[in-house]
Design a protein that fits this description.
This protein is of the alpha+beta class. About 65% of the residues lie in helices and about 10% in strands. The termini are far apart.
């Protein structure tokens, strides 16, 4: 037993010395290629085995012939180990370079295509993560392009929609100044109407800027959805009468919600005004609210005839108005973008779908 312990001790000392030397070499070469590191690791393993064997052999006073045989066997093992390490290192390094080139392509704006046959599970996992990141970047670029297009459309429409009333205001002001206005009262009423319309557009722009900047401050309170919808219907009833549209709100469940009353009133007002103005005379705008598994669902259904399927994903985009605008004729396409922003600020979601004879806008809010 004592001899075995001595042999183990001598072998450990020789191997430890080789291991310490190898650790120092690895530290010096830590920034070099993977081939070099694998070669060093293989060399350390063989050297540790050789050092331990030689130490034990010297302690056992083996003959020169036996020591030569042992050294030759270990040397052959070292050559095979080093060759295997170099081959493995070159293989991994080659696939790593392929992965680097593929990563550089999508970093420059392209799409990442993972090289086939990754040599290790770690590189394969890295390739999958890079592919997922590339898909997210593509989606982000697409959203950015769509947002930029919406902004350009918004600027163009805002410029047009503001230029028209401003030209009218200037003409009416000049007529009043020159005493050419036959009915000055009518001119003044028209000026006030145009000013109120532009004030509403500016207010919408300010509200949207707060939403997009993330500075919209909510003051949530527990409110009955029945009362919230009732107030909104009462507010748009004159507009509905003017357009000959019938409002229906008899499917409202008395469920509580934790929302900012003023902001949600704006959401309902925008949805109802859009629905009324796009519904033909003698049509119907129906409001419903109920509790579902996902929260509380509030819907506004109109009789606009529906929205083209290709346009449905863009309905809530900033500045979008489409061929059949969801906003009033003088609007800038901000109403539904504000609706989505306010709803998402409440941790909810806004959706639209076509139904028979029109479309249904639904707002889902967390239950109180």
């Amino acid at each position: 037993m004592k001899d075995v312990l001595l042999i183990a001790l001598f072998a450990f000392l020789g191997a430890a010395a080789a291991g310490l030397l190898g650790a120092g070499v690895l530290r010096l070469l830590r920034h070099r290629s993977l081939v070099v590191s694998l070669s060093v690791v293989a060399g350390v393993a063989v050297t540790a085995m050789l050092a331990g064997t030689l130490t034990v052999a010297w302690a056992m006073f083996l003959s020169s012939h036996d020591l030569y045989v042992v050294t030759t066997v270990v040397a052959m093992a070292a050559l095979v180990s080093l060759a295997t390490a170099v081959l493995l290192g070159r293989w991994v390094a080659a696939h790593s370079r392929e992965l680097t080139l593929a990563t550089r392509s999508f970093g420059d704006g392209g799409t990442f295509a993972a090289p086939a046959g990754q040599p290790t599970a770690e590189l394969a996992e890295l390739a999958r993560e890079l592919a997922a990141t590339s898909a997210k970047l593509d989606s982000s670029r697409e959203r950015e392009r769509a947002l930029e297009a919406s902004r350009r459309e918004l600027v163009a429409w805002i410029s047009h929609d503001l230029r028209t009333p401003l030209a009218g205001l200037r003409a009416m002001a000049e007529a009043l100044e020159d005493g050419m206005a036959v009915d000055s009262g009518r001119y003044l009423r028209q000026i006030r109407t145009e000013v109120e319309r532009m004030n509403g557009m500016v207010g919408d722009l300010f509200e949207l800027s707060r939403i997009q900047a993330g500075s919209l401050t909510l003051t949530p309170a527990r409110i009955s959805l029945y009362d919230l919808v009732g107030d909104a219907l009462a507010g748009v009833d004159p507009l509905a009468r003017e357009h000959g549209v019938r409002l229906i709100g008899d499917r409202i469940d008395e469920v509580p919600v934790e929302v900012d009353g003023r902001e949600m009133s704006r959401v309902l007002g925008n949805l109802l005004i859009n629905a009324i103005r796009r519904t033909p005379p003698d049509g119907t705008v129906a409001v419903a609210a109920h509790r579902s598994d996902g929260g509380v669902v509030l819907s506004v259904t109109d009789g606009c005839g529906g929205i083209p399927e290709d346009d449905l994903p863009r309905v809530f985009d900033t500045g979008w108005r489409g061929s059949h605008a969801r906003t009033p004729p003088a609007g800038a396409g901000l109403g539904l973008a504000i609706v989505r922003g306010i709803v998402e600020a409440h941790a909810g979601r806004a959706e639209v779908r076509n139904v028979q004879g029109g479309c249904c806008f639904s707002v889902t809010l967390p239950a109180a």
